[in-house]
Amino acid sequence: MRNSAGIFTCRPFIFLGMVTLLLSLFLPMTALAHEKDEILLVNKENSLSADYVPDNLVYPNVSFSSDRESMQQHSANALEEMFAAASNDGVQLYAASGYRSYDYQADLYQYWVNRYGEERANQISAKPGESEHQTGLVMDVTSASVNYELVQSFGDTTEGQWVENNAANYGFIVRYPEGKQHITGYQYEPWHLRYVGADHAAEIAANNLTLEEYLSQDSSDGTRTYTIQAGDTFWKIANDHGTTVDQLLALNPDFDPLTLQIGDQILLPGDGSTNPDQPNEGTSYTVKAGDTFWGIASNYSDVTVQELMDANPDISPRYLSIGTTLTIPTSSDNQNGEQYVVATGNVWIHSTPDFTVDSRNGVLYNGERVELLGETTNMYQIPDGYVSKNYAEIVE
Ligand SMILES: [Zn+2]
Fold first, then answer.
1. 338 is catalytic
2. Statement: 57-215 belongs to CATH 2.60.40.10
3. 213 CA to centre of ligand 1 in angstroms
4. What would the pLDDT profile of 95-146 be if each residue is shown by its tens digit?
5. Looking at the domain 284-381, which fold is it?
6. Which parts of the sequence belong to the LysM domain (predicted)?
7. Is the Cα torsion angle 342, 312, 391, 347 positive or negative in sign?
């Protein structure tokens, strides 16, 4: 009798225990994946409209390095908690810059353009609508040890280290980590904290991800999204991500690979591999199916298409054949005269329809360096949504 009673009392607990275990294994992942939809992604590809203004902006009750700035209510509360915890640890943080309106960002961007030109301005300032500060979910923080400035050396200070190690506990991430500029579009900014909530922040911090990577990770159907970049083709994407063109076509039946547009989002098989292995520099490379000069150069951190062409003068980038051996240059020490580093979307429109310069037909590649000659300074910016093929094409 005692035994059977024991069984009856035990069983529900065992059952509940298993359910709880299963739920704890399953729910956080699926719930998190689901809630990712609610995370606002703002970057150079995803901009906010001019009239996006959060309706719950408040001034967090923390120390500021100069004038007070606002944030959305819930992120302000989290910031207050974080600052209090830092203070308890003997770390004094100062808030510096929070919500910025579209118009403010427009003025700020114009200031940098006037001062350094558009090319440099794009590296250090967001264009209006592309600043995460417009979300009201961001606070730049600093410390006395760096003179209350927003500088990379903040990351090495006691305060910067505290932020790095503890921000996620309060729902914040260091939005532009070191070494991830090719993903975020921004240099390392140890001071720029973005609120995403504690669950997401913990996942992001534990896996050393950027917000872009986190939001494109596996969804419940085993796929993840990928945003088309300049120079992408299905071939290149398949090569870079260890899949095949056939698989990409099957996963993306609505996409015509010949008219891929920058910013389009396609599905990749969710195998978790995001980056191609970086081959060694100063060696040779054997051309594979689907390779382009642009694609090959982009696999090396410090090799531009121009340098690749210079190192392989006998090989036409337009007629790369499989099995060709390319020399990969080691360094860029051939910088004569004034040069301009081509940005995504720049196309060289020759002043006369005379493409005798070389075999490139006036095409400029992302990252390529060109000499600024009088007749070739006419740069053309590809509008958003321009078709991205193996290379940026002349549009007129
Ligand atoms: Zn910032």
1. no
2. no
3. 19
4. 999 999 999 999 988 988 998 888 888 777 889 999 999 999 999 999 999 9
5. Membrane-bound Lytic Murein Transglycosylase D; Chain A (3.10.350)
6. 224-268, 283-328
7. positive
